[in-house]
């Protein structure tokens, strides 16, 4: 029995040794074969480095893009004085007024911020109709001026004028019941005073201040070949100067001939310096190919006729040269559309 076990052990060992010899011989033969193939058919020079074996595998290939950008507050609009006179009150840059707050006062005329989407474009009085009338009534009712049996609609009625008079008295101006153009600034969301053009005591002649929101956006330019992978709604990564990071969502893309300008909204509250801008780095990843068979690009050999081949190591250690059809390349890997299966072992240099 012991003699049979020793004999069986010797037989198995010899089998393993012979298998190893076959693999080594196959690789040595491959080196001579591929070098000859390169001399005869390939366009590239022989790589003197020793080959290794890699495996065809299913992967998702992503490409990364980046750009330099600026983190700023949302664009602001200028507010001009409705009358000529002397500036008696002016909000400060960075202020966050609430609906109904006076943001400027020129002589006895006040400029007030009210909540609303539609910019004021005309004076309003009894008999006027339109969505701007409804917006005014909605804003004043929200401030508590709802004791005048006003029907919130698109008609400026006597009841509307009574409500306006009560509101005007509350802010210290003459209660005319009419709303003059320039005395109300409508803006939605969290309004922020972006900048001022005058100080208390100055003559009011033109722009008083700029009003925006406290929403932050990232703006950046990118080459069309990079920006073409962006769409409205795409998330981009934003790296901040302090080492932190956040995410922004693309809101708009302005397609130029040589450069595309992109604006993306930032959800996080990030403190900006007094100059209201931060230099940031923007990056985004794009899936070039999902769940595809890929191999290291160094495993491909291009022949003179443009055909790509790979050298596959079979189970017995022999080499099988196969023609393959290739797809996109990202980094060090290339998509193989046909000719290989996941798990195939190939020679790479």
Automatic annotation (TrEMBL):
This protein's GO CC annotations: efflux pump complex
Pfam families from the UniProt entry: PG_binding_1 (PF01471), RND-MFP_C (PF25967)
Residue ranges occupied by any Multidrug resistance protein MdtA-like C-terminal permuted SH3 domain in the UniProt entry: 291-348
Entry GO MF terms: efflux transmembrane transporter activity
Superkingdom classification of source: Bacteria
Domain Peptidoglycan binding-like, chain residue ranges per copy: 130-180
Transmembrane segments: 12-33
Protein name per its UniProtKB record: Multidrug efflux pump subunit AcrA (Membrane-fusion protein)
Organism from which the protein derives: Ilumatobacter fluminis
């Amino acid at each position: 029995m012991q003699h049979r076990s020793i004999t069986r052990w010797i037989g198995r060992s010899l089998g393993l040794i012979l298998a190893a010899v076959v693999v080594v011989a196959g690789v040595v033969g491959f080196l001579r074969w591929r070098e000859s193939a390169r001399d005869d058919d390939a366009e590239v020079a022989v790589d003197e480095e020793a080959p290794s074996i890699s495996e065809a595998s299913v992967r998702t290939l992503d490409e990364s893009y980046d750009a330099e950008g600026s983190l700023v507050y949302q664009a602001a609009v200028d507010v001009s004085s409705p009358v000529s006179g002397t500036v008696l009150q002016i909000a400060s840059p960075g202020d966050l007024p609430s609906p109904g707050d006076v943001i400027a006062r020129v002589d006895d005329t006040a400029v007030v911020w009210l909540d609303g989407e539609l910019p004021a474009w005309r004076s309003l009085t009894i008999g006027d109709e339109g969505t701007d009338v409804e917006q005014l009534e909605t804003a004043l009712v929200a401030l508590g001026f709802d004791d005048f049996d006003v029907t919130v609609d698109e008609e400026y009625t006597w009841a509307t004028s009574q409500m306006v008079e009560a509101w005007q008295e509350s802010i210290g101006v003459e209660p005319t019941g009419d709303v003059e153009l320039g005395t109300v600034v409508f803006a939605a969301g969290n309004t922020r005073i972006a900048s001022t053009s005058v100080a208390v005591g100055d003559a009011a002649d033109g722009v008083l201040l700029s009003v925006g929101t406290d929403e932050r956006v990232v703006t950046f330019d990118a080459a069309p070949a990079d920006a073409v992978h962006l769409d409205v709604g795409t998330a981009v990564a934003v790296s901040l100067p302090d080492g932190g990071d956040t995410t922004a969502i693309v809101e708009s893309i302005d397609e130029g001939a040589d450069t595309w300008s992109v604006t993306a909204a930032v959800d996080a509250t990030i403190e900006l310096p007094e100059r209201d801008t931060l230099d940031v780095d923007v990056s985004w990843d794009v899936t070039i190919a999902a769940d595809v068979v890929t191999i290291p690009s160094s495993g491909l050999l291009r022949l003179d006729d443009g055909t790509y081949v790979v050298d596959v190591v079979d189970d017995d250690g022999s080499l099988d040269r196969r023609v393959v059809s290739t797809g996109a390349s990202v980094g060090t890997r290339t998509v193989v559309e046909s000719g290989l299966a996941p798990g195939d072992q190939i020679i790479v240099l």
